[in-house]
Design a protein that fits this description.
- The complex is a heterodimer of chains A (341) and B (337).
- Chain A has 341 residues and is of the alpha/beta class.
- Chain A has helices at residues 53-60, 83-92, 111-120, 126-140, 145-148, 158-171, 188-205, 216-222, 240-245, 250-258, 274-277, and strands at residues 4-17, 22-36, 42-46, 68-73, 76-77, 93-96, 176-180, 208-213, 225-230, 233-239, 309-312, 315-317.
- In chain A, the strands form two sheets. In chain A, strands 6-7-8-3-9-10-12-11 form an eight-stranded mixed sheet, with helices on both faces. Chain A has a four-stranded antiparallel sheet with strand order 2-1-4-5, with helices on one face.
- In chain A, strand 4 and strand 5 form a beta hairpin.
- Chain B is an alpha/beta fold.
- Chain B is built from eleven helices and twelve strands.
- Chain B has helices at residues 51-58, 85-94, 113-125, 130-143, 160-172, 190-207, 218-224, 242-247, 252-259, 298-302, 326-333, and strands at residues 9-20, 23-35, 40-44, 66-75, 78-79, 96-99, 178-182, 210-214, 227-232, 235-241, 308-311, 314-316.
- Classes of the chains: A alpha/beta (341), B alpha/beta (337).
- At the A-B interface, helix 6, helix 7, helix 8, helix 10 and helix 11 of A face helix 5, helix 6, helix 7, helix 8 and helix 9 of B.
Chain lengths: 341, 337
């Protein structure tokens, strides 16, 4: 029985409401996901802007607190941790953010990034050892330390800066890295190199990733499983190959068909109507959030939100289209892809 | 020669330098290309390779310390480097229009959409009877697939995709011959991106205009363009039809670029291009790509390769194609770097 490492249990985050009577809106609605100690994996949270994916990242990093639900790290609730446990959590769960230009103090040499964490977490005894582990971390991310150390951020490219951030995270020997759009501001020729580093860290160092992105192509390249979010709710989740090659939820289908494939022989099929691309007025709706844009919308979709129906061995779609489908699914003794029910 | 045979745009030996205290940064260095009527042409390349500088030069919007050093830019046969500022001002919007990067943020937040569209029309055409103006605006909105009521809305009432459509309407209000779009959809979600891009193409085809698109998304490029130019460190290194460029790239840089693309069609490992693009104050001698090129040999370090036809309508600037065609195989033997 695998031991849970990091558990997100029925997380809901509601913004707004309160005295001024602003309309409360759920940025994230009943989201569950588990990482296991023994099985490092890369899990993608995919969604468009406003889908709640960054809210999820902030929750997982304990920057904000859930309105409902629980986050457990090694069995301990984040809100009820002792000082040592929290310190440990801060070391073992690391973050990499989108903007490699905004994460540096322009007045400090990049060495400061490493010296700060080494000092804070007492990772080394003496300068010699500190330099040695910094050197190692930079080599793991494919950088030549003598070209990096002693430089100021503005002297380095976006790709180099982002890899330094990965090296910084690696230095702390984390168990989980939350990466929020880590390659969206990096040139295509460097994206693959950074994604390869993630894969290497997973396979050789047992580090799991919560990979948050809007880009299904990179998600497909590196992740093991995927959750597709829309307006705070999980529309479809499962093994990344199944979900992307054979999407079941109408929203996932729309997303996958909109990806511009870098092959002139596989051109976009069909026209996306403006109602499918965006609906401006969000109507109050107790049912499926995708109702207004959905080509298959039915009456029952507005009544209550659809639960996640199994649509494959390791794939779930929250859509009434699959309510009556009988799929031979081996009863999963362990919800490897945490069901969002 | 009849008018119709004149290419929509001909750029000859364009050089744009940014003058710094340490000397000129050669952002665009001896770039030549031609765009036919109705054609959708585009530039790809890493950030800082000169794509945006090239299109800003075509619009003559290069700001100091940048300067068009030399070269000709023939719009419909007329050299727009030579004309005066006022003539150029007239040319912008009416003949060449720009949809800039993050265009949706360029809308005036305190003006209704109607007034912003009217502004473009009135500035260039002079006073127009209000009934005509109203009809024009409705037709424009209809063309970009927006409902007529959008005219009376403010930008904050619109979603990102709708704002982008308004920008397309503004850019095409005067039926330009050339539409330049600089990453027109980079801030949009994929579903909206597809819809907006389809609208833009629809408008371009309806006007019979030519288009230059630049973007870092090679997937989008593959979806919409007819022909592409690949830029590297201020130089145009390859020009080919979209199909040839993606299927049989000739320049080692293009080969590496194409090989490194993430796709939902196949999983791959490795790839990417080792090293970094050069600093253009002091670019490498010879071929600017030679320090990163897996095929580099002595000539590459000393002689700048010219952009020559290596196959029919397929240009590449690479010494591998100098001598005999046998070298093509050499280049293709190892496409992933």
């Amino acid at each position: 029985m695998p031991t849970p490492l990091f558990e997100l249990r029925n997380l809901t985050k509601i913004y707004g409401g309160g005295l001024l009577g602003r309309q409360a809106s759920a940025a994230l609605d009943n989201f569950s996901l588990t990482f296991y100690e023994e099985e490092p994996k890369i899990t993608t949270i995919a969604g468009e802007s406003g889908s709640g994916k960054s809210t999820l990242a902030n929750l997982a990093l304990d920057f904000i607190h859930p309105t409902e639900g629980q986050i457990l790290y090694k069995g301990k609730d984040l809100g009820k941790m002792s000082r040592t446990e929290r310190f440990n959590f801060r070391r073992e769960v690391q973050a990499i953010f989108q903007d490699p230009f905004g994460t540096y103090n322009p007045f400090y040499k990049v060495d400061a990034v490493f010296d700060t964490v080494i000092g804070k977490f007492k990772l080394a005894h003496g300068k010699q050892e500190a330099l040695k582990i910094t050197w190692e971390a930079l080599e793991v991310v494919g950088l030549r330390p003598n070209e990096i150390l002693g430089k100021y951020p503005h002297q380095l490219s976006g790709g180099q800066r982002q890899r330094i951030m990965v090296a910084r995270a690696f230095l702390l020997k984390p168990r989980l890295i939350v990466a929020d759009e880590p390659v969206s501001m990096v040139d295509a020729s460097l994206q693959v190199r950074i994604l390869d580093i993630f894969r290497n860290l997973k396979e050789n160092y047992g580090i799991s990733f919560l990979y948050i992105t809007h880009d299904l192509s990179t998600a497909y390249q590196i992740s093991d499983d995927i959750y597709v979010l829309y307006s705070g709710s999980v529309m479809e989740n499962g093994n990344v190959d199944d979900v992307i090659q054979d999407p079941h939820h109408p929203y996932t289908q729309l997303l996958v068909s909109s990806i511009p494939v870098p092959d002139p022989d596989i051109r976009w099929e069909g026209r996306t109507t403006s109602s499918a691309s965006e609906v401006v007025i969000k109507m109050a709706n107790n049912g499926c959030k995708f109702y207004q844009r959905c080509p298959h919308a039915m009456d029952r979709c507005t009544v209550s939100p659809p639960p996640a129906y199994p649509v494959g061995a390791n794939q779930f779609a929250a859509c009434y289209l699959y309510a009556d489908t009988q799929i031979a699914v081996a009863a999963p003794d362990l919800p490897r892809v945490g069901q969002a029910v | 020669m009849t008018i119709d045979e004149t290419p929509a745009l001909q750029v000859e030996n364009l050089r744009v330098y940014y003058w710094t205290s340490r000397g000129p940064v050669k952002a665009v260095d001896d770039v030549s290309f031609t765009i036919q009527r109705n054609e959708r042409f585009g530039f790809i390349g890493e950030s800082g390779c000169g794509k945006t500088t090239t299109i800003m030069a075509i619009l003559r919007l290069i700001k100091k310390p940048g300067k068009i050093e030399s070269g000709r830019i023939l719009l419909n046969g007329q050299d727009i480097v030579a004309i005066n500022k006022e003539e150029m001002r007239q040319t912008r919007w009416s003949k060449i229009s720009l949809i800039p990067q993050g265009a949706m943020n360029s809308l005036n937040p305190i003006m209704r959409v109607r007034d912003q569209l009217a502004d473009v029309i009135v500035t260039h055409k002079g006073p127009v009877p209000s009934a005509d103006l109203r009809a024009d605006i409705n037709a424009l909105l209809d063309m970009v697939e927006l409902p007529a009521r959008v005219a009376d809305m403010y930008p904050h009432e619109l979603s990102g995709g709708m704002k982008q459509r308004v920008c397309i309407a503004m850019a095409t209000a005067l039926e330009p011959e050339l539409i330049i779009a600089d990453e027109p959809t980079s801030a949009l979600d994929v579903v909206v991106q597809k819809a907006v891009m389809q609208t833009l193409i629809g408008v371009q085809e309806r006007l019979g205009a030519s288009m230059i698109l630049i973007g870092h998304d090679m997937g989008l490029t593959a979806q919409v363009l007819d022909r592409v130019g690949v830029m590297y460190a201020g130089k145009l290194v390859e020009v080919a039809s979209i199909r040839e460029l993606y299927h049989t790239p000739q320049h080692p840089y293009t080969q590496a670029l194409i090989a490194s693309l993430p796709s939902v069609r196949e999983k791959k490992r490795g790839g990417g291009i080792p090293g970094l693009p050069p600093f253009l104050l002091n670019p490498p001698s010879g071929c600017r790509f030679h320090p990163r090129c897996p095929h580099a040999f002595d000539t590459c370090r000393t002689v700048t390769p010219e952009l020559l036809e290596v196959q029919r309508d397929h240009l590449a600037a690479c010494h591998l194609y100098d001598q005999e065609p046998a070298n093509w195989n050499k280049a293709h033997a190892n496409t992933s770097i």
